[in-house]
Design goal:
Elements lengths: L1 E9 L2 E13 L3 E5 L4 H4 L1 H11 L10 E8 L11 H11 L16 E2 L5 E2 L4 H9 L1
Parallel strand pairs: 3-4
Antiparallel strand pairs: 1-2, 2-4, 5-6
């Protein structure tokens, strides 16, 4: 299991969100839990294609069940902020990146299908929250 940190906006206030990703044996599957909105549910396609198009091994080629938990579960999560931490977590769990330190960083960003990080709205409140 890996834990990364991201953030979500609630009005003008940013809240830190834990992005936990776990894998277990079995046939390949992928799910996101923790009150994700439609944009977050769609992140699966963006993340998987970004990883493939950057030349890494396709996540679906691992015979593993992957579960992404966005915590706290009682807050609705919106937007594409979570593409980057999900991609980094998957790459780390599948040993495609090594010695990845996550505890003191916040990862936010939408990924393009080719793997570029796109601009997001609300970066300033998130940066101010991260500084605290």
């Amino acid at each position: 299991m890996i834990r990364l940190y991201s953030a979500s906006l609630y009005g003008l206030e940013a809240k830190i969100i834990e992005v936990e990703i776990d894998k277990s044996g079995g046939l390949f599957s992928f799910s996101i839990v923790g009150l994700p909105d439609k944009a977050i549910q769609e992140s699966k396609e963006r993340v998987f294609l970004a990883i493939k198009n950057l030349g890494a091994k396709k996540i679906s080629s691992f015979n593993q069940k992957f579960v992404v938990n966005l915590a706290p579960a009682d807050l609705k999560k919106e937007g594409a902020f979570f593409d980057l931490p999900i991609a980094l977590g998957l790459l780390s769990l599948t040993s495609q990146i090594k010695d990845f330190k996550t505890s003191d960083k916040i990862f936010i960003g939408e990924l393009s299908l080719e793997g570029k990080v796109r601009k997001i709205k609300g970066a300033l409140p998130i940066a101010l929250k991260a500084k605290k």
